[in-house]
């Protein structure tokens, strides 16, 4: 038995001084007050919260390819990513892997990788060497040439947790504003003006040829795989209506207030990026996460491309709402609920003892420990 005593416990509806009792990897009791019994870990007034649950991170891609065209051994990359997330307080992650490539393209990083990387990840998970809980999130790129055959390489045995429908065709959704896309691609891939024009023409032609069939195939694949379906970059009420028809359970990064409000009306949870909240806006010129938070239509946060941003952003939301428990729920209870993980995400007896201990230092969160099923991992 372990006792985490004298902590500010982030309970589902309030923050309260108390102790957590853990046995065999589960929370078995919650006690009120600051008493520190013999043998207990004295948290000294630090916060104790459920481990964070990350639904959409492309952080693994950065470890696999740390520089353009530079490949790092995949096992080493996954282990480093795993340790990094544990060190940011994340105890469950849905690793986002893109399916749908553009093999005919020469410029940009559009080669197939998802199946091979998933095999390595699932192998490490089966070997029990990962610190935190990993699941697959397939990002189905509608505007691609190979989506159907790449999806067919996955089956129910892969236990894919999330399948998101992405459509990055130029001129809509995330890149409705072509000037923003031009700026992004010039920065990311060094596209010249002529290369940009060719890119837009080529992508639009692919969408016209394959968009509808790819969308239908991805929705069918989510059902067949038993994955939760997510929408991505919904921009208009019509986009949200289509997502609702497809059975989306949450919306990744809606790009307008109109879309976020339509999601709420349709019972689709809204996820926004932690970097957007912390930086005070979207890097591609779309709606600010804070605007949605103030309007009461933000349910979930994702660290997107900065794992350490997740805890800091949840604390910031708590400050904004004047309710730290509600802020932290966007990275714990809410993502657990959105993905059907009933065994974690709240400090409640019977649930997994996935825990973090931290202290606040201005806007920063000082993480002082991460535990998965009661075992310390960072
Ligand atoms: Fe996007």
Describe the 3D structure.
The protein has one domain (51-343): Alpha-Beta Barrel (TIM Barrel), CATH 3.20.20. Strands 1, 2, 3, 4, 5, 14, 15 and 16 form an 8-stranded mixed β-sheet that branches. An 8-stranded parallel β-sheet has the order 6-7-8-9-10-11-12-13. The protein contains 13 helices and 16 strands. Helices cover 37% and strands 26% of the residues. The protein has 378 residues and is α/β, with parallel strands linked by helices. Fe (ii) ion binds next to loops. Residues 166, 168, 174, 232-233 line the site of fe (ii) ion (FE2).
The overall pLDDT, averaged over residues, is 95
Q: Oligomeric state of the chains?
A: single chain
What is the strand content?
Answer: 25-35%
Number of strands: 16
Main β sheet profile: 8 strands, mixed
**Structural classification:** alpha/beta
Global morphology: globular
The CATH H-level superfamily is Metal-dependent hydrolases
Share of helix, binned: 25-40%
* Unique bound compounds: fe (ii) ion
Cα-atom radius of gyration:
21 Å
Terminal CA distance reads 20 Å
List segments where confidence is low: pLDDT < 50 over at least 5 consecutive residues.
Answer: none
Tell me the name of the CATH class. Answer: Alpha Beta
CATH topology: TIM Barrel
Number of DSSP helices? 13
Based on the coordinates given, report the CATH architecture.
Alpha-Beta Barrel
SSE arrangement, N to C: EEEEEEHHEHEHEHHEHEHEHHEHHHEEE
Q: How many structural domains in the coordinates?
A: 1
């Amino acid at each position: 038995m372990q006792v985490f005593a004298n902590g500010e416990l982030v309970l589902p509806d309030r923050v309260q001084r108390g102790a957590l009792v853990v046995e065999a990897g589960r929370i078995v009791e919650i006690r009120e007050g600051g008493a520190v019994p013999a043998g207990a870990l004295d948290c000294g007034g630090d916060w104790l919260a459920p481990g964070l649950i990350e639904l959409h991170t492309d952080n693994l891609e950065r470890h696999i390819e740390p520089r353009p065209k530079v490949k790092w051994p995949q096992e080493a990359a996954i282990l480093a990513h795993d340790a990094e997330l544990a060190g940011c307080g994340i105890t469950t992650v849905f690793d986002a892997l893109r399916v749908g490539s553009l093999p005919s393209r020469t410029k940009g990083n559009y080669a197939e990788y998802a199946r091979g990387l998933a095999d390595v990840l699932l192998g490490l998970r089966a070997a029990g060497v990962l610190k935190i809980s990993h699941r697959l999130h397939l990002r189905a790129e509608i505007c691609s040439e190979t989506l159907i055959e790449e999806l067919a390489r996955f089956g129910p045995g892969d236990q894919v947790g999330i399948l998101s429908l992405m459509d990055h065709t130029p001129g809509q959704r995330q890149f409705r504003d072509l000037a923003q896309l031009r700026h992004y691609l010039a920065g990311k891939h060094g596209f010249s003006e002529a290369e940009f024009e060719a890119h837009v023409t080529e992508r639009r032609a692919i969408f016209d040829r394959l968009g509808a069939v790819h969308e239908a195939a991805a929705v069918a694949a989510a059902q067949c795989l038993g994955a939760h379906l997510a929408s991505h970059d919904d921009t208009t009420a019509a986009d949200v209506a289509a997502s609702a028809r497809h059975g989306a359970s949450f919306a990744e990064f809606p790009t307008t207030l109109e879309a976020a409000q339509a999601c709420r009306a349709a019972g689709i949870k809204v996820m926004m990026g932690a970097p957007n909240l912390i930086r005070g806006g979207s890097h591609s010129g779309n709606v600010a996460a804070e605007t949605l938070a103030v309007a009461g239509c933000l349910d979930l946060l994702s660290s997107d491309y900065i794992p350490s941003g997740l805890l800091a952003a949840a604390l910031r939301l708590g400050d904004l709402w004047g309710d730290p428990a509600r802020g932290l729920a966007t990275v714990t209870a809410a993502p657990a609920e959105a993905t059907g993980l009933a065994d974690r995400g709240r400090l409640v007896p019977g649930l997994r003892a996935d825990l973090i201990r931290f202290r606040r230092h201005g806007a920063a969160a000082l993480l002082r420990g991460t535990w998965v099923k009661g075992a310390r991992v960072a």
